[in-house]
């Protein structure tokens, strides 16, 4: 487990990079970087479980803040996350898909699928899609890009993900959901708001 300065740790389980090439002599025009990680906050109250839907929603927000809240400048926050929030039910657990979209680069964004695998661990499948290096001399370069093949690859991988919880994790899940009539995640999760850290002047 790699400790983080923000109180989160991340263990990289798998990674892969796909390069996409354009017409003849165009060379590489886009890239997808996949990472599968297990993430856990350094400190978590004993009565909090990732399996509880409200706790999961809050902790997803904390994780996104860990990833993106520092990228705020005088023009505002550089990232909008989560966007395109979609609750899911995968085998044995709840999950959610969403995106983190850059305010400044229309040709760059991140996609996520997250699901709890224990009271204190979050499995995160992330994709970074980038096509920054395509015809940079053309100010309207984004209009000519079709990234549907890139998005389809991400969709296919996310749709194929299966998670089998351990016996201990299933016990934790059962305890966290005990007495809940509605175990679903919220249908709408608006982007988080991050403010620029103000400097102290003396």
Describe the structure.
With 202 residues, the protein is α+β, with helices and mostly antiparallel strands. It has three helices and nine strands; from the N terminus they run βββαββββββαα. The longest helix is centred in the first third of the chain and has 16 residues, at 53-68. The radius of gyration is 19 Å and the shape is globular. The termini are far apart. Residues 1-5 have low confidence and may be disordered.
**Discrete helix count:** 3
Oligomerization state? single chain
Q: What does the radius of gyration come to?
A: 19 Å
Global geometry: globular
* Domain tally: 1
- Second CATH tier, the architecture: 3-Layer(aba) Sandwich
Mean of all residue-level pLDDT scores: 87
CATH class: Alpha Beta
Adjacency order of strands in the biggest sheet: 1-2-3-9-8-7-6
- Sketch the topology as an H/E string, one letter per element: EEEHEEEEEEHH
Q: What is the β-strand count?
A: 9
Measured as a percent range, the helix fraction is 10-25%
Biggest sheet character: 7 strands, antiparallel
CATH topology: Protein Transport Mog1p, Chain A
Distance between the termini: 40 Å
Poorly predicted runs: 1-5
Computed structural class: alpha+beta
Strand content: 35-45%
What descriptors fit this protein?
202 residues, alpha+beta, Protein Transport Mog1p, Chain A, 7-stranded antiparallel beta sheet, two-stranded antiparallel sheet, 3 helices, disordered N terminus
Map the helices and strands.
Elements (H helix, E strand, L loop, with lengths): L1 E2 L4 E14 L6 E14 L11 H16 L3 E2 L2 E2 L1 E12 L2 E10 L5 E11 L2 E10 L17 H13 L6 H11 L25
Antiparallel strand pairs: 1-2, 2-3, 3-9, 4-5, 6-7, 7-8, 8-9
């Amino acid at each position: 487990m790699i400790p983080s300065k923000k109180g989160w740790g991340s263990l990289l389980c798998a990674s892969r990079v796909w390069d996409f090439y354009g017409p003849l002599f165009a060379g590489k025009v886009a890239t997808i970087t996949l990472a599968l990680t297990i993430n856990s906050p350094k400190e978590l109250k004993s009565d909090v479980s990732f399996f509880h839907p409200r706790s999961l929603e809050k902790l997803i927000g904390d994780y996104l803040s860990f990833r993106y809240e520092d990228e705020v400048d005088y023009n505002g926050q550089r990232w909008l996350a989560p966007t395109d929030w979609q609750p899911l039910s995968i085998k044995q657990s709840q999950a959610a898909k969403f995106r983190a979209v850059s305010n400044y680069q229309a040709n760059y964004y991140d996609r996520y699928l997250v699901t709890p695998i224990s009271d204190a661990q979050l499995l995160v499948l992330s994709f970074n899609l980038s096509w920054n290096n395509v015809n940079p001399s053309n100010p309207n370069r984004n209009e000519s890009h079709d990234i549907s093949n890139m998005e389809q690859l991400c969709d296919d991988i996310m749709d194929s993900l299966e998670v089998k919880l351990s016996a201990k994790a299933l016990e934790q899940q059962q305890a966290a959901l005990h007495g809940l009539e509605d175990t679903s995640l919220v249908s709408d999760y608006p982007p988080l708001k991050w403010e620029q850290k103000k400097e102290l002047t003396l």
